[in-house]
Structure to design on (398 residues):
């Protein structure tokens, strides 16, 4: 009980359910909605409904898409011999942003994490393997996060793919650009030395 | 451009318009909406529409209300001789929470701030004065924030009310409970000394 009228309480509750939104922030956001022009509030509500209804998963790469097959999978200008495997759609967006990569993607929808009940069969790994059945794909780049779950998932997938004669690679580890050696952790530093390049 | 599909971009934009929500947070929240069950997303959209449509202003105290006159103004158990003046409805909720105050409220809808174009006529000051026309109200407690705008507003209102023979008071200044003298700023400290009480 906080002394607000019911419709406001409901909205505060809805905002609170979002990740990283505490009670005070939820109150601030709810008041912002109450104070915004009616048209903006309606647009916001419509955007929520639309995002939920119109966004599907691409039946090929499992990335979010408005159509059955996403624009990247449909594009004739993308290199169909390379598939970059990511944990989620946000990571696809991050890689697309740098405009360096021109291959296809495959979104796993998570990382293997037995503690959290995420076993390999919960991920879109079967769908990835079925994409490798003809000889189009020459390389799979595993771009999962460099943490325990990301590593485990990368190892698991690479063991399944290698027997198919497809090259499997992993994003390079190292000191992040603009970072300082002094503050790099030991694992990062040892991997940066391990992966050193001749100049 | 961030490589997301249109419906998602729209939702991210909507979240970004909320106060204190940056791009990365907006992306996180939008993905959370996409991942939530359809029923929850619909409930969220409905809560936004409802909050906007069902919440009005109480015609007496200008606090948010579901009806023309709010529950506090209608209540027979509240002390109608005292009005507590606040900047907004959030402050009313904060005071209601402590359950110590049993009088009525008056929400100004802002604080005087000429720099931001908020002149006294933009606030619900006339409405406050009209509530003092009969002899019911004996005291007006001005509970605006202890900053420049809050002070200026309090001074402005008290000058209008005093000639009407109504007592005007202001919330006490001082060291916040649990605070430390060492870290109190000079103004707070000097006011705490000024407002000292005999024990």
């Amino acid at each position: 009980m906080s002394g607000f009228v019911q419709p406001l309480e409901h909205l505060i509750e809805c905002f609170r359910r979002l990740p990283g939104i505490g009670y005070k922030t939820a109150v601030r956001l709810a008041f912002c909605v109450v104070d915004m022009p009616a048209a903006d509030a309606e647009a916001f509500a419509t955007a929520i409904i639309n995002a939920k209804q119109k966004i599907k998963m691409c039946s090929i790469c499992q990335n979010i898409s408005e159509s059955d097959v996403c624009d990247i999978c449909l594009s004739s200008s993308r290199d169909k011999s390379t598939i970059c495997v990511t944990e989620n759609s946000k990571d696809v967006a991050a890689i697309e942003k740098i405009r360096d990569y021109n291959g296809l993607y495959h979104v796993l929808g998570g990382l293997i994490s037995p503690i959290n009940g995420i076993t390999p069969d919960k991920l879109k790994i079967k769908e990835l393997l079925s994409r490798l059945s003809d000889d189009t794909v020459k390389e799979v780049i595993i771009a999962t996060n460099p943490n325990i779950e990301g590593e485990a998932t990368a190892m698991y997938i690479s063991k399944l793919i290698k027997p198919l004669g497809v090259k499997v690679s992993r994003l390079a580890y190292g000191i992040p650009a603009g970072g300082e050696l002094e503050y790099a952790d030991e694992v990062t530093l040892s991997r940066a030395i391990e992966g050193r390049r001749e100049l």
About this structure: Chain A touches chain B through 53 residues (CB under 8 Å).
